[in-house]
Amino acid sequence: MGDSNKSGQSLAEVIIATAVGAIIIGAVVSSLVLSMRGSSQGRLASSAASLGNGILDSVQALSDGDWQAVYNLSTKGPTSEYYLVTTGTPPTVVVATGTESVTVNSVAFTRYFSVQDVYRTSCGTGSITTSSPTSCSNGIGVLEDPSTQLITAYVSWENVGGATSSISLSAYVTHSKDRVTQYNNWSGSSGIQGPVAAPAPDYVTSSNITASSSIELNAY
User: Fold this and answer.
1) Of 9, 128, 211, 219, which one has the fewest beta carbons inside 10 Å?
2) Cα–Cα distance for residue pair 114/152, rounded to 1 Å
3) Per-residue pLDDT for 9 more than 70?
4) CB 57 within 8 Å of CB 169
């Protein structure tokens, strides 16, 4: 009888130890899986950030060479979608509508950028504001700054678990490089108020101005 009890106790101990070991192994495996998944997601997020910064750098470079290519886009706002395309010979960078797919280490990323007008206080020369534009009087009012645009890069991807993740990065690009232009067409209309991003034949008032093929200041 004594030997039978010891045998029963030993069997129970083996079963309990096996069950405990299975629990511990399961916890370790789950921890490793979570750690590997977190590491993988971290690498994907890092790649996405690099792709987003690449968009911002490329748009700034494009605006430095051709401000109108960015400023004159037909659709603007937080929901606008654009990407850059290199085309032609010699190669030229142009803005295309929509999104693009970029593969990094066998993972497909979708990226694009939006363009928004920027408004400033002090009639367009002060601090950047999200307020709506107003009339300008005596240096007070909110107007558009045609030399600044808000660019937001968006990048999305599918994680190991199948869920979709995304990041967004924003930066202001400015028109800081000007080209010397001689403009000799002032045959437009008066009463046109700025700001403007390029020379135009219009003006605010024609007082003391002779509008012809050139502009003549009669008095100041």
Assistant:
1) 219
2) 5
3) no
4) no
Distances (CA, A) of 90 to 64, 83, 86, 93, 173: 18, 20, 10, 10, 25
- Report the pLDDT value the prediction gives residue 59, as an integer from 0 to 100: 96
Whether 92 and 196 share a structural domain:
no
The answer on 91 and 190 residing in a single domain is no
CA pair distance 102, 100, nearest whole angstrom: 7
Query: What dihedral do alpha carbons 87, 89, 90, 92 form, nearest 10°?
Result: -20
Mean pLDDT confidence for 173-190:
66
Most confident of 23-32, 103-112, 203-212: 103-112
Considering the domain architecture, whether residues 97 and 199 belong to the same structural domain is answered as: no
Would you say how long the chain is, in residues? 220
Choose among 112, 124, 1: nearest CA to 48.
112
Domain count, the chain: 2
Q: Tell whether 145 and 191 lie within a shared domain.
A: no
Phi-psi bin for 107: left (phi > 0), alpha (psi -120 to 50), beta? beta
29 phi/psi in degrees, rounded to 5: -60, -45
